[in-house]
Amino acid sequence: MLKKLLDQMATLKRVQNVALLGGVHGNEMSGVFVAQKFMKDPTDITRNSFKTTVLMGNPKAVEKCTRYIDVDLNRQFSKENLNATNIDASYEVQRAREISNALSKDFGSPDVVLDMHNTTANMGNCFIIQDKQQVLSLHLINYIVKKAIHKAPAHILCVSNPKYTYNCSRCLAPNGIGLELGPQPQGVLLAELFQRMQELVINSMDFFEAFNSGATSDSFQADVYNIMEKVDFPRDSDGNITAMIHPRLQDKDWEALNPGDPIFLTFNGKTIGYDGKETMFPVFINEASYYEKHLAFWLTKKETFNVPAIKVQ
Ligand SMILES: [Zn+2]
Fold first, then answer.
1. Domain total for the chain?
2. pLDDT(287) > 60
3. What is the pTM of this model?
4. How many angstroms separate the alpha carbon of residue 157 from the centre of ligand 1?
5. The one catalytic residue among 28, 92, 180, 287
């Protein structure tokens, strides 16, 4: 029995280098202000057993309170962009290189990236991971969700679908996690979301410190939502949208969407139903920054699986 339990225990490398990013999108204010606070005084996020680096992702966009200057920074972390040396690259490609260099100078690539974002959608506390093999990330999320005093519905979104992966800043680390807190309008700072974000970050540091000092984390069942499909707004031949998110879908992120359920409402008041064959879980419904990406919401499927216990190597 004991042997079986030991077999299920994963031993993982100690955490040496944690990166905390805010303002990768300059108008997502919880991350901007939490990063600013900890850049000024890192006491609350400093621990003995690892180094934490706090960076403002896109300072020029933060100054202008806009998502980006030239292009979306959170799509620019491709190997080609990071390895190229051309000086005529867009501001965000240059920032991606600077961020990557700053984070890799001490230890090679960071072990963990916590990338703080906000969404205008009713996403609660959403944790975005690249794949389900991020065992340390899953334990971290489990810990910080349970420990939070400032509660909100919490879900894990997995973007391993090769059709929809993108070169984001969290991809700089094997344990990259996007913290997507909502709903919050762009350019607006809500105290409740600031407190939620700050608490998740501080508790993350406690988790890594305990992990490094030898604390084991028990196995548990995780629910993960896998991205399956992108849904755009209905459009006319000129590319203009011809319908809005249906009022009955608005704010229903993470809730089951069944075939036939209303998803859009035309400007003439006609309801358009979901024409898929199976139940899905929509997320990022009506996210403001996705209009330019031709994206009304994502469809996800829920998966439950067992995460093994972990301890440090
Ligand atoms: Zn963002």
1. 1
2. yes
3. 0.96
4. 14
5. 180
